[in-house]
Amino acid sequence: MNSLSLLSLIVLGLAVQVGLYLGIVFWRHWRDYQALRGRDEELKLPPPRLVPEGDEPAAPAWQGFRSFRVERKVFEDILQSVCSFHLVPEDGQALPGFLPGQFLTFRFDVPTANGSTEQIIRCYSLSDAPRAEGYRISVKRVLAPAGSGLPPGRASGFLHDHVEVGSRLALRAPSGHFRIDRSDAPVVLIGGGIGITPMLSMANWCLAEQPGREVWLFYGVRNSREMIMKPALEDLAAAHPNFNLRVCFSNPLTEDVAVRDYQHQSRVDLNVLRMQLPLKTYQFYICGPNPMMESLVPALEDWGVPDARIHFEAFGPASVKRRSAAAVTGVADEAGILVNFAKSGKALSWRPASGSLLEFAEANGITVDSGCRAGGCGSCQTTIEAGEVAYSQAPDFDPEPGSCLLCVCTPKSNVTLEA
After folding, report:
1. Does the model's pTM come out above 0.70?
2. 104 three-state secondary structure
C-alpha cells in the first residue's frame, strides 16, 4: 500500500466519523424539537399541574355575598373608558388569597327608567395580584354598538356613573377555572383589549412570587388611546429582565411611534408569536374578544401546542371550541338527546356539537340569564324537572338541589328544564 492509498483511507475514516457525529447531533436536535412541539409523552414528561397540592381551595372563601367599600376609583386610559375600582371589605378582615386569573361576582341594584331598581349579576376579572387588604377590578364602559339598536352596557355604565369612592358593593368570593399554573415553566400571556385584566393579575403575581420565571405578555389594542396602565407595564418590563412586554397596535395613530409606543403593527396572531418566542415548551394563557380567540386558539393547535398547554377565557368562553372537543362522537350524534324547555314550549334534539345547554338554548332563541358562563356566578341556574345532566367541569357555584348551571353542563339523558 503506497502513501497515497494510506492517506485516502485516513481521509475516508475521518469523513465517516464526522458523518456519524453530524448524524447523531441532527437526530438529537430533531428529537428535542419534536418534544418542544408538544410531544411530551415521548419523553415521559408528567402532565402539567395547574395548582400545586394544597393550593386548590376546598370551598369558596366565604358563602353568599359580602359587603365591600370602594376605596379608590382610578381611570386607566386616555379616553377614561376603563376604570379600576379598589375594593376593601366592610368588616375589616384580611382577605384570603385567590388564584390569579379568577373573577369576582357582583350583585348590583341598577336604577331603572321608572325610578325603581333592578337587581343584576355580573362578573369581572381581578386585575391585580392577590393582596390581603383588598381587591381590584378594571372595567371598560360598554358603549352601544353603532347602528345596532342595542343598549349600552348596564353594569359597566352603573359602575362608571353611579359608583363612587365610599359606595358599597355586594360580591361573592373569587372563583373561576381560568388561572395560572404555579410551575416554573415559561409562560405566554395574551390579552386583547379589556381581556388584559386577568393577564395583569397573572403577570403581577408571577413577578412578585416567581421573579426567575420567564414571562411574555402580548397586549393587543388598536392604538395608544385604548391602551391601559401603560406606565405600570413599562415599569415592570424595565424592572424585571425575565418579563418581556410586546404591544401590538392594529391601527396606530399618526402620533404613535413604533418601538416607543408599540412593537408590532398588527393584531396578536401566530406570526407575531413565531417571530418573538424562542423554541420552548410554553404555557399559553389567552383572554380577549371572540374573533381573536376563534383565530388564535386553532392557530396554536396547528402550530403543535398541545391542548393541555392552551388555557383561555373569552368574552363568552363557551363559544370557543377546541378541535379535540369538536371531534366528539357517539350515540348522541346519531339520534340526539331530547331537551324539553318547559316555559319556552320547545322540545329540541341536542348533540355534542351543540355545546353546553346554555349555548344550545341561546342558539334556539331561548333567553336565559347568564353572567360568567363558567359555572361561577349562578345566574343561569335552572330547575331540572326530569332527566339528568352532566358537568364538563366542577362548578364553583353550588346549585340548589334539583337544578343545574346551564353554562357548564350537557344533557346525560332526555331532560326537561324549566327554562
Report:
1. yes
2. strand
